[in-house]
Amino acid sequence: MHGLINRAIEMFVRQTYGGKDWIALTKKLDLGFTEFEAMLTYEDMVTMQVLEGLSDHLKKDQTDILEDIGTFLVSHPSVESLRRLLRFSGRDFVEFLHSLEDLPARARLALDDLNLPQFELKEHNLDHFSVVVWDEMQGPVAFGHVLLGLLRALADDFGALVLLEYKGGREGTEVISVNLLHNSFTEGRRFELAVNAS
C-alpha cells in the first residue's frame, strides 16, 4: 500500500482523536515506528493491522472509519490541497461526478506510483447515478467506503442536496448510489481558483 494512503489514515487519527491515541495504537500494534513515510510503500498487511487496530481502539466498525477518512480528506483544513484538487474538477457536484473517471489518471500525474481504483459513472437519468469502484488489487482499504465519505463531504462543499447509499460490492467492485435532490440547495463552501497567499 502506498505510504500516502497510510499517511492519510495516520493524519485522520492524529487530527481527529489526537496524537496520543495514534502513538498508543502504533505501540499496541508493535509496528516499530510511529509515523508513515508518504513516499514509501508498505505491505498491505500493515495497513490491514492499522485499520483493524483502529476499529478495535475506537469500538467502531471499520467501514464507518473508512467513510470518516473520506470525509476528513475533503473537510479538514490540514488537507486543503486535496479539496482544491477535487473542487477544480467541476463547477458543481454533477460536473464533479462526471470527472471521477479521470481522477486516478490525474493522481498519477502527481505520483506515478499511486494506484487508485478505477471509477465508472453510470447516469440512469438526470438526478440518479451510480458510481462503480473497480479495485482489481482488492487490498485492505475498501475504497468504496472512503469514496462514500468523500462524496458526502463534497456534496456539502458544493451546496448540493444528495442521498448516497453504499450498495455493496463483490469480485473487486463496489457500487454507490447517488440521488441528486438539488444541485444548488445551499451556497456551499467558498472556493477560489487562486490560492490566497496572505
UniProtKB/TrEMBL annotation:
Residues 2-129 form the Heme NO-binding domain. InterPro entries: H-NOX_domain_sf, Heme_NO-bd, NO_sig/Golgi_transp_ligand-bd. Pfam families: HNOB. Transmembrane segments: none annotated. It comes from the Bacteria. Signal peptide: none annotated. PANTHER family: GUANYLATE CYCLASE SOLUBLE SUBUNIT BETA-2, SOLUBLE GUANYLATE CYCLASE GCY-32-RELATED. This is Heme NO-binding domain-containing protein. It comes from Roseovarius phycicola.
